[in-house]
Write a structure and sequence with these properties.
This protein has two domains: 4-181, Cobalamin-binding domain (Rossmann fold); 207-466, tm_1862 like domain (pyruvate-formate lyase- activating enzyme). It has 16 helices and 20 strands. It has helices at residues 25-36, 91-100, 118-130, 141-145, 147-153, 165-175, 223-226, 235-249, 269-279, 298-306, 321-326, 333-346, 366-379, 395-402, 429-447, 458-466, and strands spanning 4-9, 12-14, 18-19, 40-45, 64-65, 68-71, 84-87, 106-109, 136-138, 158-159, 206-208, 211-212, 231-232, 253-256, 284-286, 291-292, 309-311, 313-317, 354-359, 382-387. Strands 4-1-8-9-10 form a five-stranded parallel β-sheet, sandwiched between helices. Strands 11-14-15-17 form a four-stranded parallel β-sheet. A four-stranded parallel β-sheet has the order 16-18-19-20. The protein is globular, with a radius of gyration of 23 Å.
């Protein structure tokens, strides 16, 4: 007898959330893998924007706002002067969709940010209410990084850590007394089936991942704890998937989910983009994850432009050399200058290029943050401020604990990047809010090709940031 599995992408509970090419790619990979091994799969996406009577405002390239319901803030977050919401479909819609599906033999729930654990928790509670006794399996990033917290607070029956396909298959085989066929285990990354995008009710865009894992070990990132060892797919394999999804769904926008898209670029991304150009597919590419600027030479910049790479976000983090070395960063100031120049020569306007910079790192001074922002503004690019979130298991989390900024057993809700977790007497929530406003001013200036602090010292800039409105 075939087993029915229900896979669920849970709600987001947060002060803010936005569909920036956001899909649970790991869960969709697992869905296709389990189908291939003989299971029937149903799916509920709590973050679906469609089909419940609400008209989403979909912006350029498929991005847009999620439906939201304002809820009471958890007591631990009462000091934050912002509204707290549940993002995603109404609970009523969730219950209605659940009733239309076949009764599941097991429920698989994914998790993303550690400080979003209230979403999986709510889903587990509803499944317990509606399908008591049905095994609930939790996987994903939160489950991997904080498995003990998940056992205690979310209370699933089972937890899967790390890459989930094979582990889930083994667990289900044990639960249902099925033969575990080792022939179903992919021999390489090339053998994984494409993600089950057909489960998405209304795809505005597609996700593509040309590799898994990352060879780098940045102090603020937990990639090596949540993913498999770095492995790249062949360019031909990637092109086949692009063609398949473009033809099946007639969707033009593809977002790369790679953490290291430009590694081995001559044998990888260069060839992929060449093949896309040769195919003449009218598709567009986007990079929500930061791109490694040091690999963007003249050739790669030209290929990106010709292949219709529209959204470019460079991973920069900081202009401070000492900090960069300390965090094992991937780009120098000179690399950044050269990459922007190469992109401009290829046809991109500087004001359309974005660069991630981090604020709120352990021990980070205000001068470092402002100096980095001014450096990027003087390059003429857009600043994407990324607030630091201390991720359990990373070097920077350990540093924050050692400095006394946070407790080792901190409630994950207090690591939310929106609330600037490492606030202190010198730099607090209000300071960071002013820094964000300063960034908006600089970005507006960049659009007008203005560099208001080109000749100013950092002290002048900081005074501008901190002045009262």
């Amino acid at each position: 007898m075939q087993k029915n599995l229900l896979l669920i992408n849970p709600w987001i509970y947060d002060f803010t959330a936005y569909d920036l090419w956001s899909k649970p790619l790991g869960l969709l990979y697992i869905a296709s893998f389990l189908r291939k091994t003989g299971f029937d799969v149903s799916y509920i996406d709590c973050m679906d924007k469609y089909d419940f009577g609400w008209e989403p405002k979909v912006k350029q390239y498929g991005q847009g706002n999620f439906y939201r319901t304002e809820i009471d803030k958890p007591e631990i977050l009462e000091h934050i002067p912002r509204k707290y919401c549940r993002y995603g479909i109404p609970e009523k819609t969730f219950r209605e969709r659940l009733k239309k599906l076949p009764a599941p033999d097991a429920v698989l729930i994914t998790s993303i940010m550690t400080y979003w654990y209230l979403g999986p928790k709510k889903v587990v509670e509803l499944i317990r209410e509606i399908y008591p006794g049905v095994p609930v399996i939790l996987g994903g990033i939160y489950a991997t990084l904080l498995s003990e917290h998940a056992k205690r607070v979310v209370k699933p029956d089972y937890i899967i850590t790390g890459p989930g396909e094979v582990k889930v298959l083994k667990l289900l085989s044990e639960l249902f007394d099925l033969d575990f066929n080792k022939d179903n285990i992919p021999a390489s990354i090339e053998d994984f089936p494409y993600p089950a995008f057909d489960l998405i009710s209304h795809p505005d865009y597609m996700i593509i991942m040309t590799a898994r894992g990352c060879p780098y070990d940045c102090s603020f990132c937990a990639q090596k704890k949540i993913s498999m060892p770095f492995a790249q797919r062949s360019p031909d394999n990637v092109l086949q998937e692009l063609k398949y999804h473009y033809q099946k769904y007639n969707v033009s926008d593809f977002a790369f989910y790679d953490d290291a898209l430009f590694i081995n670029k001559i044998k990888h991304i260069d060839i992929i983009l060449e093949k896309v150009i040769e195919s003449r597919m009218p598709i567009r590419f986007h990079s929500p994850n930061g791109l490694f600027a040091k690999y963007i030479d003249e050739r790669l910049a030209e290929l990106m432009f010709r292949a219709n790479f529209k959204t470019i976000r460079l991973s920069f983090e900081t202009s401070n050399e000492e900090r960069r070395v300390d965090m094992n960063s991937k780009v120098s100031n000179d690399d950044m200058v050269q990459a922007v120049e190469n992109l401009e020569n290829a046809g991109y306007a500087r004001s359309k290029i974005e660069a991630y910079t981090l604020m709120g790192l352990p021990g980070q001074e205000l001068t470092e943050i402002i100096a980095t922002m001014i450096f990027l503004n003087n390059l003429g690019v857009q600043i994407k401020l990324a607030s630091f979130s201390p991720i359990p298991g990373t070097l920077d989390f350990e540093r924050a604990v050692e400095s006394g900024s946070i407790k080792e057993d901190i409630d994950p809700l207090l690591t939310n990047k929106t609330i600037f977790p490492l606030s202190d007497d010198k730099i607090n929530y209000e300071t960071f809010s002013k820094i964000r406003t300063f960034g908006q001013v600089l970005n507006f200036a960049a659009q007008k090709n203005l560099k208001p602090f080109y000749d100013a010292d950092i002290k002048t800039a900081i005074n501008e940031v901190l002045k009262d409105d």
